[in-house]
Amino acid sequence: MKLHCRARHLAAPRAAFLALTLVMGLGLAACGGDNSNAGAAAEIWPEKTMDELADAAAKEGEVSWYTVFTKENSAPIIGAFQKAYPGIKVTTLRLSANQLSSRILTEQRGGQFNADVVSGNATYIGQLQKAGALQGFRVAGLPALPSGLTLPEGYEGVVYINTSVLAYNPQAVKAAGLTPPTTWQDLTKPEWKGTFSIDPESVDWYDSLVSSMGHDQALELVKALAANSPRITPNHTQQLTEMQAGETLAAVAAYGPASAAFKKTDPTRTDFVNSNPLPAVLTLSGLAKNPPHRNAAMLFQSWLLSAEGQQVVVDAAGKISIRGDVRNNTTLWDPKTWTPAWADPSRPPDEYNKLSSEFDKAVNP
């Protein structure tokens, strides 16, 4: 049963990321030539307790948060923080990961420092750190990173984990006379030809496959999926929306937390499978360089990464916390059941661009 002819992904595959790499190569020299700024960005601010920060932050009265969180996800987080610290207003700018990075670099190169806290995909946050656009800060009480993961000192703020899952529409799969898929390889079979979608921007998923399967086997799998005529859908949420509507039967590398949210609204038309190993990628949070509300920035960052803040991120925003003292949704995340396969959060830009280009060519032969 073929639902769609294959749509060609038109593309500037990660053009914004390539532009970011170029800016990084130039550095932030355009920021007024202020060498003191560069020194401040290299400095790691020491740990401070919430009590130490609260009074000074209240005098500043505001914190500016640049984030990839949607409005629906960020609103309960902001509400919980402002309940704990009612004298501090949180203003947000919500952008996609690449837009967020470009915005910060553009502002800082123009001598504007508007952001206090920045939360986004590990790849882009890592490149902002390398470009000197972030301020290192040791947040008290952070858990140790899982084995195999490393982040620079002062930049270890994991705000949540995203997983990549195999989502499918149980109702539509049954109507098509198919057995629900249980592995990525299932979708390479002839009976699934043309019935599923893939996001051509799922480079982190591919990175995770490489880490767990090895490069050659991961590339072979992606090429086999591409050969089975998937629908090319350049948006993870759109993948799930199309699938739940019955336009496709399954979605490759859908985000786990989003899949769980869709399943909650209609379990008859959304379900998902966690592979083992389970592809996982970090979403990081850090202080921007020269934050205009220095103490409020440190307070918000510390609260966001604390057990209290992380439980809000899990319960209200539906995300996955890296902390062991936070109750996660065990249908999404249980390292004892599914071994994480981490996308490399510190991959150099040239390596990432090579991986990105390879994935794009595999998906769009």
Provide a descriptive summary of the structure in words.
The chain has 365 residues and is an alpha/beta fold. It contains 14 helices and twelve strands. Strands 1, 2, 3, 4, 5, 6, 7, 8, 9, 10, 11 and 12 form a twelve-stranded mixed beta sheet that branches. Helix 8 crosses helix 9. The protein is globular.
From the structure above, extract its key features.
single chain; alpha/beta; 14 helices
Compute the number of helices.
14
Oligomerization: single chain
Q: What percent of residues adopt helix (DSSP H or I)?
A: 40-55%
Q: Low-confidence parts, pLDDT < 50 over ≥5 residues?
A: 4-26, 28-40
Determine the structural class based on helices, strands and strand pairing: alpha/beta
Kindly, what is the distance between the CA atoms of the first and last residues, rounded to a whole number of angstroms?
22 Å
Note the overall shape: globular
Biggest beta sheet summary:
12 strands, mixed
Q: How many strands appear in the DSSP assignment?
A: 12
- Let me know the average pLDDT: 90
Fraction of residues in β-strands = 15-25%
Radius of gyration of CA atoms, rounded to a whole number = 21 Å
Question: What sequence of helices (H) and strands (E) makes up the elements?
Answer: HHEHEHEHEHEEHEHHEHEHEEHHEH
